[in-house]
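thread: overnight batch results

M.L. [08:02]
morning all. the overnight job finished for the chain we discussed friday. pasting input first so we're all looking at the same thing
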Amino acid sequence: MNYLTADQALLDRLAGVMESIEIRDADGKVLGRYTPVFADEKDMSERAAKYFDLPAAERTLADEKKQGSSLAEVWKRIHAGETQG
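M.L. [08:03]
and the structure it wrote out:
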């Protein structure tokens, strides 16, 4: 099998890739496909954990829930605007 040796720049670009992707040129032409190789599910999970902080995402979600409005509140504001205009 023929191969290319990845330099550090390419390794850095592919470091967070967790599933098969197409590699395209600037015009959108497909150059090839890259599929990362993992020894097992644990290896994949550990690699993914380096790029995704689940506890931080859960905190963000909890904070954003406090900032939103219910659909009923949104409709109430919409209808209030119709009667004022």
